Amino acid sequence: MIGRLNHVAIAVPDLDAAAANYRDVLGAQVSQPQDLPDHGVTVIFVELDNTKIELIHPLGEDSTIKGFLEKNTAGGIHHMCYEVDDIYEARDKLRSQGKRVLGDGEPQIGAHGKPVLFLHPKDFNGTLVEVEQV
Ligand code: CO
User: Fold this and answer.
1) Residues 3 and 85: beta-carbon distance below 8 Å
2) Cα–ligand 1 centroid distance for 9 (angstroms)
3) Dist. CA 120–CA 124, nearest whole Å
4) How far is the C-alpha of 69 from the C-alpha of 73, rounded, in Å?
5) How far is the CA of 127 from the centre of ligand 1 (A)?
6) pLDDT tens, 7-30?
7) How far apart are the CA of 12 and the centre of ligand 1, in A?
8) Structurally, how many domains does the chain consist of?
9) Which of 4, 16, 22, 128 has its CA 20 to 30 A from that of 57?
């Protein structure tokens, strides 16, 4: 069912410092920060040959990643995103195997303008999983 790893999202307490780490230390191609108010994050995209890293930082008071950073003060891997061909088919298959889809189960438009769903971390080895229809 799943295809490529689309991105790994890392929540960071200091976006500039994180960008500098990837750009200056690791020599990666790093985007300018982009505010995504609908998602409550500011994101910097790190382009790698085979996938992307998304450095995410809370935007606004009710950002969903605020609590994560309170628990993980140095930052940490927030979620992994896997590509699927058909998000409804993926959702129904996951549910039929007892996996919990977060929210109301209707795909939302994600950070790349494509439909996404998030799956409960307790159902996936302690990892928040995003699936994106590409
Ligand atoms: Co994501």
Assistant:
1) yes
2) 6
3) 7
4) 5
5) 12
6) 999 999 999 999 999 999 999 999
7) 14
8) 1
9) 4
Residue 37 is encoded by which pair of tokens? 């108010």
Range of 18's domain? 5-133
Catalytic residue among 54, 70, 106, 130: 130
Token pair 């494509």: residue: 114
**pLDDT for res 107:** 96
Q: How far apart are CA 96 and CA 93, in angstroms?
A: 5
- Residues 41-74: tens digit of each pLDDT: 999 999 999 999 999 999 988 898 999 999 999 9
Q: Is 1 exposed, middle or buried (0-12, 13-18, 19+ CB in 10 A)?
A: exposed
Q: pLDDT for 93-108, tens place per residue?
A: 999 999 999 999 999 9
Name the E strands within the chain. Answer: 5-11, 29-30, 34-36, 41-47, 52-58, 76-84, 108-109, 115-119, 129-133
- Examine the residue annotation and report whether 130 is marked as an active-site residue of this protein: yes
Please report, as a single letter, which amino acid is at residue 17. A
- Nearest in space to 85 (alpha carbons), one of 110, 115, 65: 115
CATH number, domain of 120, equals 3.10.180.10
